[in-house]
Recover the amino acids of this structure.
């Protein structure tokens, strides 16, 4: 699954470039830094890889979502629709922006269900965040069509699907903005880090200002005299992270290719079994091969299958019980517990409405996830391990199906 498995010499070389100058800050120090701008170079190469015009590096994937929402001017009183199956950061970023997260169902893609998305739109809805979960695309074209019809902005949370695409167009470049994470578990890592991409010059400028206390980054004046048109915050990536990011990015094509090879035998084994249905990939969709996801006929069988595999020492996830990726298991969100004592943002005058959450609100998501088993794919799965996985998957299928 992750780039951390391949941290090595290239990362050291890029980090040494930075340490030799001693300049860890991404801006300023033109004489001391000897032409080394790792974060800037990482942004440029990342934009190139995804096919976006602009990229803004930030401190995390969570920050990337917050920065994108802020660039789009989304805040108190606004509703943002996203799926109930995602990493909790998607919800947290909406709340941090002062807006209200509205959960929608997933479908057999394990991503946002366009039909339910349309049902959840209200006069307060300003944006949609489809999340490309577990390496595979959402029905992005349909989601965009609905969003355009209702004049909604689209931020693609692509934290888990760097390199995936639809019809040759990479995920993250379909919506108004795309966000990525480089935390330690993602396809490439900078320890912590994130990226916002867009093709819109003004949105990029706003993102870059918001992520750096409002600095306009005017190349003709020094930092102290830089102009500002609104208040921001600090989400700056530093040069050490940029250095690791550049090294990791140079390996990304190889990482994806190795993962594709690693998952092939596993996917073929599962596909050929009656009673197992693979996760749906939208037409012309291309996976980034971080996970193999499949459905069993019942919740009992799915849980038994996952337990059987896990008991043999093979990583397998039953997301219905996962504490961090499914709204049903977020008791603090269900109770609307934020760091603020008041009802904001779920109620009160700014919102002018009242949002509540419950375990019953996404029955379709629950019905899908209770039958879902997920196998994470790792770079270091060698021939022996893969063959053993196939044997155990077949044994589990014999016993349970
Ligand atoms: C990892 C992740 C994030 C948050 O990224 P961090 O860098 O850990 O803050 C956001 N959304 C999804 C779907 C993620 O998987």
């Amino acid at each position: 699954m992750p780039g951390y498995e391949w941290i090595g010499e290239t990362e050291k070389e890029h980090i040494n470039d930075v340490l030799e100058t001693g300049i860890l800050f991404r801006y300023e120090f033109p004489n001391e830094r000897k032409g080394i701008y790792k974060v800037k170079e990482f942004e440029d190469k990342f934009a190139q890889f995804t096919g976006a015009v602009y990229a803004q590096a930030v401190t995390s994937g969570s920050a990337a979502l917050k920065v994108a929402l802020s660039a789009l001017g989304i805040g108190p009183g606004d509703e943002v629709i996203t799926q109930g199956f995602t990493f909790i950061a998607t919800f947290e970023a909406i709340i941090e922006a002062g807006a209200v997260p509205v959960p929608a169902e997933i479908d057999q893609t394990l991503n946002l269900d366009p039909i339910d998305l349309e049902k959840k739109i209200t006069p307060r809805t300003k944006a949609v965040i489809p999340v490309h979960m577990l390496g595979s695309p959402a029905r992005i074209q349909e989601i965009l069509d609905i969003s355009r019809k209702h004049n909604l902005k689209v931020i693609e949370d692509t934290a888990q699907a760097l390199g995936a695409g639809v019809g040759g167009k990479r995920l993250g470049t379909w919506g108004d903005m795309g966000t990525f994470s480089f935390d330690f578990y993602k396809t490439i890592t900078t320890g912590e880090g994130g990226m916002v991409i867009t093709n819109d010059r003004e949105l990029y400028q706003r993102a870059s200002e918001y992520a750096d206390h409002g600095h306009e980054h005017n190349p003709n004046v020094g930092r102290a005299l830089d102009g500002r048109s609104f208040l921001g915050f600090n989400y700056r990536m530093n040069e050490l992270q940029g250095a690791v990011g550049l090294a990791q990015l140079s390996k990304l094509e190889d990482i994806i290719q190795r993962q594709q090879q690693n998952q092939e035998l596993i996917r073929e084994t599962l596909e050929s079994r009656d009673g197992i249905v693979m996760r749906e990939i939208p037409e012309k969709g291309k996976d980034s091969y971080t996970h193999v996801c499949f459905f069993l006929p019942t919740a009992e069988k799915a849980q038994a299958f996952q337990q059987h595999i896990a008991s043999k020492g093979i990583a397998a996830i039953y997301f219905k019980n996962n504490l961090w990726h499914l709204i049903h298991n977020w008791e603090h969100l269900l109770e609307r517990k934020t760091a603020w004592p008041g009802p904001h943002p779920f109620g009160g005058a700014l919102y002018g409405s009242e949002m509540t959450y419950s375990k019953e609100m996404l029955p379709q998501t629950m019905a899908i996830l209770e039958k879902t088993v997920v196998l994470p794919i790792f770079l270091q799965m060698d021939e022996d391990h893969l063959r053993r996985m196939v044997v155990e998957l077949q044994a589990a299928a014999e016993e349970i199906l």
In short: Residues 252-271 form the longest helix (20 residues). The radius of gyration is 22 Å. The chain is about 35% helix and 15% strand. Residues 253-400 form a domain with the Aspartate Aminotransferase, domain 1 fold (CATH 3.90.1150.10).
